């Protein structure tokens, strides 16, 4: 049995994104240009991007995961995301971190991804 980290009741496992920042939609659009090479759906709609934080200096921090920790592109995927988001006008800096808690599950996919993959 895997021991789960202790969390305060009501504390989300995934930090909320900075959805009210003017660059948020453009950063999400940039994330949507990156695809998992084994699944023909972008990483955002797959639910691999957990958090997009943008500070007042337009520095972006992204917490993301993979469909499986042993994914063959684990070492490359953060760089793909960083390059895509860095190209967004107005973005000053990008940091991408990989997290595996909570683990990714198919329920994290958007309806568009489920439809694309034939799950709806």
From the N-terminal CA to the C-terminal CA, the straight-line distance is: 33 Å
Strand order, largest beta sheet: 1-2-3
Largest sheet: 3 strands, mixed
Low-confidence stretches: 1-8
Report the radius of gyration as a whole number of Å. 15 Å
Q: How is this structure best described in words?
A:
The protein has helices at residues 24-31, 43-46, 77-86, 111-116, and strands at residues 49-54, 59-64, 93-98. It has 120 residues and is an alpha+beta fold. The longest helix is centred in the C-terminal third of the chain and has 10 residues, at 77-86.
Please provide a brief summary of the model.
The protein is α+β, with helices and mostly antiparallel strands. The chain is 23% helix and 15% strand.
Protein traits:
120 residues; alpha+beta; three-stranded mixed beta sheet; 3 strands; disordered N terminus
Give the helix/strand layout.
Layout: H1 24-31, H2 43-46, E1 49-54, E2 59-64, H3 77-86, E3 93-98, H4 111-116
Parallel strand pairs: 2-3
Antiparallel strand pairs: 1-2
